[in-house]
Amino acid sequence: MLYSITIVLIAIICVVLIIVILLQSGQGGGLSGGMAGNVGGGAGNMVGARRTADFLSKSTSVLGGTFLVLCLLANFLIDKDPQEGSVIQRSSGFEQPAPPNLQLPQDDATTLPAPAPAPAEQNGGSDE
């Protein structure tokens, strides 16, 4: 449940971060230089453009930091079932090790007998 909420927050922050980055100016354009710069004209306009640029820059930093923290938090919030392996392990036939608290029966009937010794070679045939 908490993992799902974290993923939704990450998705919302991603969309807002994309919008904020696209609003920033690259080389004198964007919201801080283009649209806000053409309204009114004069020196007062430069202060407004700078404030917009500072706001967008700070909001990018805050959103980026929040995104990173939520991604790390989501990693720890993933529900992990110790009895269940990954999809690859289940499909390849990889056996999970037994949990440490599980005691397997140890009886002598299940042990395999020792293999018989190999027969000695006979020198009756051609010896090349």
Summarize the structure.
The protein has 128 residues and is mainly alpha-helical. It has helices spanning 2-23, 30-35, 43-77, 87-91.
Write the layout of secondary structure elements.
Blueprint: H1 2-23, H2 30-35, H3 43-77, H4 87-91
Region (Disordered): 87-128
Function: Involved in protein export. Participates in an early event of protein translocation.
Family: Belongs to the SecG family.
Description:
This protein is mainly α and 128 residues long. The chain contains 4 helices and no strands. It starts with a helix and ends in a 37-residue tail after the last helix. Residues 41-45 have low confidence and may be disordered.
Summarize this structure as a short list of keywords or feature phrases.
4 helices, 0% strand, transport, protein-transporting ATPase activity, mainly alpha, translocation, 128 residues, transmembrane, single chain
Strand pairing plus helix content: what structural class?
A: mainly alpha
Helix content: 40-55%
- The radius of gyration over CA amounts to 34 Å
In the predicted model, the low-confidence regions spanning at least 5 consecutive residues are 41-45
Main beta-sheet strand count, sense and barrel state:
none
The overall pLDDT, averaged over residues, is: 74
**Share in β-strands:** under 5%
Rough outline? elongated
Number of strands: 0
Gap between N and C termini: 76 Å
**Element-by-element helix/strand order:** HHHH
* Helix run count: 4
